[in-house]
Design a protein that fits this description.
It is a single chain. With 285 residues, the chain is α/β, with parallel strands linked by helices. The protein has one domain (3-284): Spore Coat Polysaccharide Biosynthesis Protein SpsA, Chain A (Alpha-Beta Complex). The protein contains nine helices and 15 strands. It is an enzyme of class 2 (transferase).
């Protein structure tokens, strides 16, 4: 079975290094494709064996729409060669519980009739007691506190012809949300406060531009958005992993949202106010 992974990035070097290391272990670096939004030689230096595709950055009009259409087109092309295409943002790692699936290939083989897979989302966060990470540290070996997230329970893998749209898949007559047990999307945006501070400066700069269709308030006021998250996170009561996982899966896995206006099938954006501790296997995922 042939599997590749693709992401699109602009200057988010810490997250990209995490993405590259994670998917290189599982798929091999030669099967990784990075779309650089603007020519950036540092990306090739950080990801020396990946396939880097640079696209122009002169006009950011319709920012998310343009990125989505571009990546869906490249994804379709890769689908000529690969059986499955994994597509996540640079700060998103798909983690598979070895008690359920031995590898990405084993997971995909068990879903031969599916055209897309979703994962149960987690915001992994830096706690006040955590040490600052080195640039070479794997995030999940140093961060174990997390909050489940409906918003990040995203579609992440597709076969050729199935398009990703607004965290979900295109709403067609045969679209189904398949969310296997034991598959998680670890969102690392909040896992390193140092990296977040740098990334937020770029987000705010983009959102403050003059073009139409740029990202909204969450990017324009990225620091306030981060402060809001960490305030919630510090106040959240801690519950055990099995209880938190069961609650999240029950609330999300069998209750998708079909948005006819946006033509998307996605997971329900449930918000959870309990935090939990990741099991040990995440460190080796």
């Amino acid at each position: 079975m042939k599997i590749c992974a693709i992401t699109m990035v602009y200057r988010d070097y810490w997250a990209l290094s995490q993405w590259y290391a994670h998917y290189s272990r599982h798929l091999g670096s030669d099967n990784l494709f990075i779309v650089a939004h603007g020519s950036d030689p540092k990306i090739a230096a950080l990801c020396p064996r990946a396939n880097v595709i640079a696209v122009p950055r002169a006009d950011l009009t319709g920012f998310d729409r343009m990125r989505g259409q571009l990546l869906n087109s490249i994804q379709d092309g890769l689908g000529v060669i690969y059986d499955w295409v994994i597509r996540t943002d640079a700060d998103e790692l798909i983690c598979i519980d070895p008690a359920h699936h031995g590898s990405f290939a084993a997971l995909f083989r068990s879903h031969r009739r599916s055209n897309a897979l979703f994962a149960l989302g987690l915001n992994v966060a830096e706690d006040i007691e955590d040490d600052t990470m080195k640039a070479t540290d794997a995030a999940l070996t140093k961060r174990s506190n997390a909050v489940f997230s409906g918003h990040y329970s995203k579609a992440w893998a597709v076969r050729r012809g199935t398009h990703l749209v607004r965290h979900g898949i295109s709403l067609t007559k045969d679209a189904v949300m398949v969310m296997p047990e034991g598959v998680y999307l670890a969102h690392l945006k909040y896992a390193s406060i140092d990296a977040l501070t740098e990334a937020n400066a770029h987000r705010s700069e983009i959102a403050a531009g003059k073009e139409d269709g740029l990202p909204g308030k969450a990017w324009l006021h990225a620091d306030k958005d981060a402060m809001k998250f960490f305030d919630m996170f510090q106040k959240a009561p801690k519950i055990d992993w099995m209880t938190a996982r069961a609650q999240a899966y029950a609330a999300i896995a069998d209750d998708p949202v079909a948005e006819a206006s946006q033509k998307v099938l996605r997971a329900r954006s449930v918000t959870f106010y309990n935090r939990t501790v990741l099991p040990e296997w995440f460190k080796y995922s």
